[in-house]
Amino acid sequence: MGDEKVKEEALQILGLFQILPRLVVFDLDYTLWPFYCECRSKNEKPSLYPHAKGILYALKDKGIDVAIASRSPTPDIAKAFLKKMDFQSMFVAQEIFSSWCHKTEHFQRIHRRTGVPFNSMLFFDDEDRNIDAVSNMGVTSILVGNGVNLGALRLGLTNFARDSVSPGRNKGK
Length: 173
What we know:
Largest sheet: 5 strands, parallel
Oligomer: single chain
Number of strands: 5
Distance between the termini: 24 Å
CATH topology: Rossmann fold
Structural class: alpha/beta
């Protein structure tokens, strides 16, 4: 499925929901792309998971901001890859740094930078520990097994809508 087709399908999925997040936050490694940055060279040409680009453009078209929260020990490589894909200007916040705090510090910084409350955010990551920690902050968080895709987007939006009308946060697995 090409990027444009994925974007159209993602826009259809977004159109099914009356309550949408103000900000969608993505991890990088094994969420947007199928590798660890620290195992790659800045000179390489990076690739995304098949649905990632279409989903990012659909969110932007719908007026939903996007951000990055990555615990990469090689932020220079991650930023170089985002620049090569011409994505760096797409994100309202890029918190890419090594940390032992399971992304809670990343989300504090994203909140300070954007002013978006945690309960208005949706987060995709491939690690349970990050999902658990960020869910406890009030962010609707979705564990992805094989990168972000249309199914994960639908699950995330479904859980976000449910969490927005009922108290308490639940993580999607």
